[in-house]
Amino acid sequence: MNSALILFDIEAQVARIRFNRPQALNALTPELLTELSAALDRAYADDGVRAILLTGEGRAFSSGADLIANMGEPPLDAQGRLDLGLQLEKHYNPLVLKMRGGPKPIVAAVNGLAAGAGCSLALMADLTIAARSAYFLQAFVNVGLVPDAGATWLLPRTVGAQRAAGLSMLGERLPAEKALAWGLIWDVVDDGQLLTAASALAQKLASAPGQALARMKRMLAEAGAHSLPAQLQLERELQRECGLTQDFMEGATAFGQKRKPLFKNR
Predict the structure, then answer these.
(1) What is the widest separation between alpha-carbon atoms in the chain?
(2) Last-in-domain residue among 185, 206, 227
(3) Could you count the other beta carbons within 10 Å of the beta carbon of residue 45?
(4) Residue 75 needs a FRET pair 20 to 30 A away by CA distance; which of 41, 201, 211, 240 works?
(5) Could you tell me if 155 and 177 lie in one domain?
(6) Does one domain contain both 129 and 238?
(7) Are 251 and 261 in contact (CB under 8 A)?
(8) Is 263 inside any structural domain?
(9) 141 and 72 share a domain?
(10) Residues in Cβ contact with 124 at an 8 Å cutoff, skipping those fewer than 6 apart
(11) Residues 171 and 248 both lie in one domain
């Protein structure tokens, strides 16, 4: 899938998905989001793909929704009034749920600005790694809007109420180093090492036991809504499932033989 808006290739069991609107700082349009959703479907369905790497071409991850392009054909409700919620309902919300609920781990490599919904998508990855010069921006307040694409769900859970409020209400840049210190992202590396480091991270996930990773994603996604007894029960159920996999048998055998396991996602 190499369209004008999304670049897709597979290398070493990692599907690389890249936003391809560098001239617009990879601003998000409905067409781009549709292609991104299709790229994720393709990666999830391909048994040869074990992990996904998401990044942007050029000097930005994504500057968020392309307000100018989107206003060319504005979303209208039944009464003909502007309804920006329609785009969330049709494009952003299903995409966020697909990222969080999909069976394969996603690494986001933030190569510059990640703003608005672009920031949300970067942080919805399972592991986010940023270039040292990168920064995150909840830009919505600057145009009279509220954070979306899951930002108000993720930020309080990740950085706490005060920091989530500050990021949302002040609309100020959060440098990569500070995002790391706050626990918002996994790692920060020098700019020239970003893709190398992100690829290595994705390939490490690709060599891990995929059956276990898929269940980890589910457990972590559901933990916030569960009581401790409910989460313990989920752990019990999914641990039983993992114990029946070939990956577990390989892991246990390799441990006994003091060698590196070769997981096959079975």
Answers:
(1) 69
(2) 206
(3) 8
(4) 41
(5) yes
(6) no
(7) yes
(8) no
(9) yes
(10) 96, 99, 100, 106, 108, 149, 150, 154
(11) no
- Domain contains 34: yes
- Same domain for 138 and 94: yes
Rounded to whole angstroms, the Cα distance separating 199 from 160 reads 30
Spatial CA neighbour of 130 closest among 148, 112, 147: 112
Burial of 184 (0-12, 13-18, 19+ CB in 10 A): buried
Q: Work out how many domains the chain is built from and give that number.
A: 2
Q: Which domain holds residue 159?
A: 6-206
Full 3-state SS string of 74-120: CCECCCCCECCHHHHHHHHHHHHHHHHHCCCCEEEEECCEEEHHHHH
Q: What is the CATH number of the domain that holds 76?
A: 3.90.226.10
Q: For residue range 71-104, what is the model confidence (pLDDT) as tens digits?
A: 667 777 778 888 888 889 999 999 999 999 999 9
Q: What is the pLDDT of residues 169-195, one digit of tens each?
A: 999 999 999 999 999 999 999 999 999
* CA dihedral sign, ordered 60, 63, 64, 69: negative
Residue with tokens 């990956």: 247
Query: Are 29 and 153 part of one and the same domain?
Result: yes
Q: How open is the CA angle 235-108-198, to the nearest 5 degrees?
A: 100
Residue at 1 is within a domain: no
How high is the pLDDT of residue 81? 84
pLDDT in tens, 97-147: 999 999 999 999 999 999 999 999 999 999 999 999 999 999 999 989 999
